[in-house]
Design goal:
The chain has 229 residues and is mostly helical. Helices cover 78% and strands 0% of the residues. It contains seven helices and no strands. Helix 1 runs antiparallel to helix 2 (40-74). It is elongated, with a radius of gyration of 23 Å.
């Protein structure tokens, strides 16, 4: 990617990731309020608000963070399999997203029970406890991902070491060769900040994939509020 496109993808990835953490923190606050409050109106409002936050904020941000991270890895020299910290980030982000999707039915159930049952309902509280635990665990996982992004520990994988060695063994290209290649193939220019046709196609394809993933995720989590009994 060109420097300008790389900065755009990085900005998007940071925005989605930070927004994900903030949304989960809000979810955790609502879950604790729903579990511990003795105010019936508070409980009946907290769980539906949790479902709204999870369905229309947390799930989209999770997929957006995952997708933008993949684009950034594949479109820069970091790669997807060259560094251990990138692999661990990918695993943790994918794991957190899968757990989130698997907990959506429980969130919907708790929201429905909060409006149908009295405050002392045992099954409502039984659903509230795991939601608090998983939200707290989710924040912990996202903080670990953030730390990995900053410190970048553990170095290269074996695949990354081989790729680095191959690059070192290649003879350096002269400036004349680079200039001739750029003139003969303007779509593959490696210098300048202007976006080439290839970069525009990558950006358009990324947006298309993001929209498809968002559409599928909304169907997986049930985009309407009419739940089957």
């Amino acid at each position: 990617m060109t420097p300008s496109l790389r900065k755009l993808v990085l900005t998007a990835h940071i925005t989605f990731s930070v927004g994900w953490i903030g949304a989960v923190a809000t979810f955790l606050a609502l879950a604790i309020a729903g579990l511990t409050s003795q105010n019936a109106q508070m409980v009946r409002a907290a769980y539906p608000a949790m479902e709204l936050a999870a369905r229309f904020v947390i799930v989209p941000l999770a997929f957006a963070s995952l997708l933008s991270g993949l684009i950034q890895s594949l479109g820069t020299s970091w790669g997807l399999f060259r560094h251990y910290w990138v692999l661990v980030k990918l695993f943790l982000t994918t794991f957190a997203t899968i757990v989130l999707l698997k907990k959506m039915p429980l969130i919907s159930y708790a929201s429905r029970r909060a409006t149908e049952t009295p405050l002392s309902s045992a099954d409502l509280r039984a659903a509230g406890v795991p939601l608090v635990v998983h939200a707290a665990g989710g924040i912990l996982v996202l903080l670990v991902i953030t730390i990995l992004s900053v410190y970048k520990p553990w170095g290269l994988t074996r695949y990354g070491q081989r790729k680095q060695q191959v690059r070192r063994d290649q003879p350096p290209r002269s400036p004349q060769m680079v200039k001739v290649r750029s003139m003969s193939d303007p779509d593959n220019q490696t210098t300048g900040d202007g976006p080439s046709r290839g970069n525009k196609l990558v950006l358009a394809a990324s947006i298309g994939v993001f929209l498809v993933v968002m559409h599928v995720s909304m169907h997986l989590t049930g985009h309407s509020f009419h739940h089957s009994h």
